[in-house]
Amino acid sequence: MEFIRGAHNITSRHHGCVASVGNYDGLHPGHRQVIQSLARKGRELDLPVTIVSFEPHPLEFFVPHAAPPRLMTVREKLEGLSKLDVDRFLCLTFDHRLANTEPEAFVEELLIEKLGVRHIFVGDDFRFGRNRRGDFEMLRKLGRVFNMEVVRTDSFMVGDERVSSTRIRECLATGNLIHAKRLLGEHYSLSGRIVRGDGNGKKWGFATANVQFKIQKPALQGIFVVEADVNGGMWLPGVASLGTRPTVDGSMYVLEVHLLDFDDDIYGRRMRVRFLQKLRDEVRFNSVETMCEQIQQDILRTREYFRNEQSQRVS
Q1: Do the Cβ atoms of 47 and 88 come closer than 8 Å?
Q2: Fewer CB within 10 A of the terminal residue: the chain, N end or C end?
Q3: Angstrom distance (rounded) from CA 179 to CA 294
Q4: Is residue 3 predicted with pLDDT exceeding 90?
Q5: Alpha helices, DSSP H only, in the chain?
Q6: Measured CA distances, 65 to 72, 190, 210 (Å)
Q7: According to CATH, what is the number of the domain 187-314?
């Protein structure tokens, strides 16, 4: 899969494709259903599949304090799309220029002249262009003018519930990881490079891997039972804290992972952490000693979780 960073990197060889435009945050089953449909149309027309997305998220640009949490970084989105039937991922820089582009110009100049889109899938709530003036009906009318077929994507349902990034964020925020997994089709995970922290965990008796993830506002917070994968190896059991560490007067979000019965040197390597169960909320303790006592309890509960899982697999 080819990654195109910014409209200025579109060349003449990128002209001619089937496409979908959206944020694609989380790459949930609804997104994958759209890509499967797009891939079938691409094979029918003998055209490559292009996914068009934005960085930052438009709401992060307009109202950063009220923007929804990210489910994944651009890198994670790139990795996820590369495993699907996608030929090109175009990530447009969402800035003042793009925000002020009239919807008609967005269609004619980007979709038609640069990308040569013959067939496009969008959601029925898709809005685009200056002041969000463009909508599905406008896109369909413009499609008739430029010989571009415009198709509305169907909702993907799990039981009687519509799958959406918004609903998945709600589940993660309330600690309902089981339902989040049901909607995502897999455990929610974050990834990043392991960096050196302040060394307090090791000093207190439970060394942690500090995972540098590039999301300013995570979709979930608290203490969790997790599994961690380092550079594509096996999944290792652990307990993780994702929060601001109020007991030591922290202010930035930090993901710290304590791997059970593991002491290898993994600094500088990438780690993916998947969240299995929430143990508790993050709280400010009256002392470091009290915090350490609670962490030991968290570790005991985590060991019990994996013992139960092992027993269920054996039986």
Answers
A1: no
A2: C
A3: 27
A4: yes
A5: 29-45, 58-62, 74-82, 96-99, 103-105, 136-145, 165-173, 177-184, 200-204, 288-314
A6: 18, 22, 26
A7: 2.40.30.30
Least confident of 10-14, 38-42, 154-158: 154-158
How far, in Å, CA of 90 to CA of 70, rounded?
A: 19
Residue 21 falls in which region: left (phi positive, over 0), alpha (psi -120 to 50) or beta: beta
Nearest to residue 121, comparing CAs of 201, 210, 30?
30
Confidence class of residue 277 from pLDDT cuts 50, 70 and 90? Answer: very high
CATH no. for 2-154: 3.40.50.620
- In the predicted model, what is the mean pLDDT of residues 205-224? 90
Token pair belonging to 154: 């169907």
Whether residue 95 is predicted with pLDDT greater than 80 in this model: the reply is yes
Q: Would you list the domain boundaries of the chain?
A: 2-154, 187-314
Name the pLDDT band for 201 (thresholds 50, 70, 90).
Answer: low
